[in-house]
Amino acid sequence: MSPLEIVILLPLVAALAIWLGAPARLTSVGTAFLNLLLVLGLAWNFKSASAGKAGFAYESARIVLDNPAISFAVGADGLAIILALLTALVALAAVWQINPDKPGIYHIASHLIAGGAFGAFLSTDVFFLYAFHELALIPTLIMIANHGHGDDEYRKSVAWKTTVYLGVGSLILLAGLAWLVLEFSSGGKLTFDLMALKAQAAATPLPKGTQSTIAFILLIGFGTLVSLFPLHSWAAPAYATAPTPVAMLHSGVLKKFGLYGLIRIVLPLLPEGFYCPCVQNALLFMLLGNILIMGFVTIHQKRLDDVLANSSVMHMGYIFLGLSAGTETALRGAVLLMFAHGISIALLFGLAGRMRNQIGTLELNKLGGLGAHAPVFTVLFAFGAFASIGLPGLANFAGEVMIFLGSFTNFGSTSFGPLQWAVVGALWGVVMSAVYMLRAYRSIFQGTAMAGHFVTDPSWSQRVPFVLLAAVLLVAGCCPWILLGLFKTDLATLTDAASTAVQSATKAVSH
Amino acid sequence: MSVFTIEAFLAILGLVLLMIEAFAPDISRRTLAALSIGGTALALVLFFTVASHETSSLPAFVQPWMKLDSLAIFYKGLSLVITLLVLWLMHECAPYLSKYTVDGRLSELFSLPLIVCAGMMWMAAATDLVTVFVALELVTVSFYVLVAFARKSNLALEAGVKYLILGALSTGILVFGIAWIYGATGSLSFEGISAALAKPETSKVPALLGAAFLLAGLGFKVAAAPFQSWVPDVYQGAPIPVTTFLSVGSKAAGFVVLTRTVEALIGEHSIIGPEVKALLLVLGALTVLLGSLPAIFQQSVKRLLGYSSISHAGYLILALACGDSIRTGMTSGGIVAFYLATYLPMTVLAFLVLAVLRVNGQGEDIRDFRGLGKRSPLLALALTLALASLAGLPLTAGFMGKLFVFFSLVDHAYWGALVCATIGAAAGFYYYFRAIVAIYSTEGSSNEPLKLNIASKVGATVLAVVIVVLGVYPKPLQHTLTKPVEVAAKASAH
């Protein structure tokens, strides 16, 4: 049995145990802690475990269906390990910060989401990769509908909107994956095994037209799940409405599934499709929509949770930019930013949830001067906010810089094409982030306090999850090589394919 | 002993129980239920011992009309399992059902399902249209009685009348279609029809007309659009066990006939193949849409499940329309059988929960689900799994079948039908999730724990486990079903 199977099953077992009546908080935090230790151990050991292997470490496979060939196969490369680390960290923080007076379903839902996310990131079988993500969606939707913020009518409507968007998105994704698997079929045998699919894609790539059509379908499917503009409108209300642990886990971890899927499936299997000019240009337009339009939308928000939710949609644009460039630097930056954004947004949502519990409102113009009463709280929030802006020394900065540099050079090409223009546009996003985050920070923590609106510093035990996340931001920001060192060759092969695809595309254009 | 003996045993047991009730009115309900359930269980055990023999065959006098291929064996097993489950549900529901009969007696309720079961088992093996027709009528006529069983309830009477009138009409249409087919092809057996349709000299228009009427008649039985309008009313009015029986048993029986009919009509060189395929595609897509879109607005869970059953029929018809798929190596019959096998546990489980709520004095609306998460966590979880599986979520039983259907559609590039199927599945997310959200809703109408007997607890747990196991590990089920595929492939290779 691979240790990765334990990582996936542990949260699911914890959820089952809590359902059967185990003490909720103890089981929940204990399991999350155990899982974090396990994932840290696996990451520590990753270099030696993956030494001499071309593909994944910690592999195992159990066949569940012969034709189409589906197996419960797990394995980890650098990308999967980093995202598993993100999941373990955010899961621990999310369950730890749950108020003791909340019912057990908060813990059950959090563990189901975490288990689904682990499963999605660690599966090397396309079927289970898809299935685990769906598993994580159900508790998310139930929690928004039944335990979200706001009145009954409103949160139900938000939950429905989210259900329909994500449901349709996953179905489009499924149709795309089914087509992909069918195209790679040989002799009446279908396979969902990622390694087998990769081998086939390397040996006999699909024709370019098919590639770009499937790549576009998958981009729309995955894009809906990552709130790619203009398919984003479910995300901001969902995060603002969701109960705190669900908002932390979904925006921090689960949303990264769409990006992960693009890197894991689309880039290696359909390189020519993803990097053909039509798909690229469409993607550039959409990601600029994420960054610029959503940037302005975020500036206009009047409540902290809306600011955070919209900023989370906006920041996805940078990561898409990294994917769209496809150079090694940009891809590494994108993965780093996935990690950093997950940690920082989880920290911010966790603190905002605490604030809502204590004050009952998150309206920016009703708050002020909180800093004087709660210095620790303020500092923790500052970590999250400044990381989110992209201040050097915190994790997001490293990711964003790598993306911008990697996208601008784009395989050493000297031409100033659409990608370079997109980078120029995207840079303005950093300014907008600074505007809304600093404004929110100023109006909440500085100035004079409004009557009756105070927060107190969290008690020592309640500080742990937030301090943990803030520390990770600082460490990953100052020493990003700790994470980047986990990549070996897995992204290099991707960028080879991308560079060939880009160069053949440019040639086709120049001829 | 042959499989035919078991079927005859079931039919005779049904008649004997009817006689016992008529001549010994004092016999207790419990005894009748025990006899009936025990008899079916015995038949099931015998069936598995007999069917596992490679050499099991039918007696000579039925061989001209019946054939025991693996598809037949599979559907016979399915019929026995669903009959057993339905009889058990009837026993569970007996206390409240007896309030709705004139003299409080329920005997036919325990004997008619046995006769239905025998009919379904014959239908599964039938190789010509007359045998199909006789078996089908045996099933349908028994259902006329069962649907209207709760005679004191107006809804049940309405359901009974609707089912009777539309059922009789569809029977007429079916016979008409059979007559045209016979006229056009000169044969009543599926093989003969297929062979005649492959000849270019067979006249096309009469054959097409016959095929259209045949499909319309069968379409009524499996609730395909545009013959689906009876479903919600009948599902709502019929007693819960009968609804379960209709939605799984009657549908499975209809689909085995439809599978064989369609295979005969769209065989390799069939002169009407393209037309029938196009017709089925349109019908299937329409059925999915007319099932899943109205379901969005339903408040009654029974009506909701009725519409859901329509949309499931739509996916199955789409699978049949695609025919065998070369790239996936799956036959359309195999896909349909797989789908129906996974459809059984989830539907029975959903109706079981409804039955428990009903016995506890609750209604059948979505809002009656509220607070179920507190009142009975076990039932809540089981129902969540059943609904998620009906919606076709991965890792539950319902996903694989849908995936196979989508594969077939993509493989044959039927994009329009694919779009309709996708819309249907997306709408499914909405209406099943509405029910799931209600289960975990905090503002429950009552908080007292539900009374559950051991049998219900065990039944719900087993069905829920089956749903998850089939979703995570479908290999064994597929293995039992791929046998016919391989055999067929070998046969066609020779």
UniProtKB/TrEMBL annotation, chain A:
Any idea which UniProt keywords this protein has? Answer: Membrane, Transmembrane, Transmembrane helix
How does the entry describe its membrane topology? Answer: Multi-pass membrane protein
Where is this gene product found?
Endomembrane system; Membrane
One Pfam family in the UniProt entry: Proton_antipo_M
Answer yes or no on keyword Membrane.
yes
What GO CC terms are in its UniProt record? endomembrane system; membrane
Q: Which InterPro entries match?
A: NADH_Q_OxRdtase_chainM/4 (IPR010227), NADH_UbQ_OxRdtase (IPR003918), ND/Mrp_TM (IPR001750)
Q: Where are the transmembrane segments?
A: 6-22, 29-46, 69-92, 104-121, 127-146, 158-182, 214-236, 257-275, 281-300, 307-327, 333-353, 374-399, 419-438, 466-487
> From which domain of life does this come?
Bacteria
A GO molecular function assigned to this protein is: NADH dehydrogenase (ubiquinone) activity
Q: Where is the NADH:quinone oxidoreductase/Mrp antiporter transmembrane domain?
A: 123-409
Tell me the Gene Ontology biological-process terms attached to this UniProt entry: ATP synthesis coupled electron transport; electron transport coupled proton transport
Membership in a protein family: Belongs to the complex I subunit 4 family.
Identify this protein by name. NADH dehydrogenase subunit M
This chain's source organism reads Brevifollis gellanilyticus
From TrEMBL, chain B:
One GO cellular component term: plasma membrane
The NADH:quinone oxidoreductase/Mrp antiporter transmembrane domain covers which part of the protein? 126-423
Q: Where in the cell is it found?
A: Cell membrane; Endomembrane system; Membrane
Q: What is its EC number?
A: 7.1.1.-
Residues crossing the lipid bilayer are: 6-24, 31-51, 71-89, 109-126, 132-151, 163-185, 205-227, 278-297, 333-357, 378-401, 413-433, 454-473
One Pfam match, by short name? Proton_antipo_M
**Membrane topology (UniProt):** Multi-pass membrane protein
EC class, as a word, reads translocase
Q: Name one GO biological process term.
A: ATP synthesis coupled electron transport
**The keyword Protein transport belongs to this UniProt entry's keyword annotation:** no
Return the InterPro entries for the record.
NADH-Q_OxRdtase_suN/2, ND/Mrp_TM
Q: For this protein, what reaction is catalysed?
A: a quinone + NADH + 5 H(+)(in) = a quinol + NAD(+) + 4 H(+)(out)
This protein's major location comes to membrane
According to the UniProt entry, its GO molecular function terms are: NADH dehydrogenase (quinone) (non-electrogenic) activity; NADH dehydrogenase (ubiquinone) activity; quinone binding
Question: Would you say which domain of life the source belongs to?
Answer: Bacteria
Keywords in UniProt for this one? Cell membrane, Membrane, NAD, Quinone, Translocase, Transmembrane, Transmembrane helix, Transport, Ubiquinone
Give the protein family.
Belongs to the complex I subunit 2 family.
What is the role of this chain? NDH-1 shuttles electrons from NADH, via FMN and iron-sulfur (Fe-S) centers, to quinones in the respiratory chain. The immediate electron acceptor for the enzyme in this species is believed to be ubiquinone. Couples the redox reaction to proton translocation (for every two electrons transferred, four hydrogen ions are translocated across the cytoplasmic membrane), and thus conserves the redox energy in a proton gradient.
State whether it acts alone or in a complex, and with which partners, per the record: NDH-1 is composed of 14 different subunits. Subunits NuoA, H, J, K, L, M, N constitute the membrane sector of the complex.
Name by which UniProt lists this protein: NADH-quinone oxidoreductase subunit N
This chain's source organism reads Brevifollis gellanilyticus
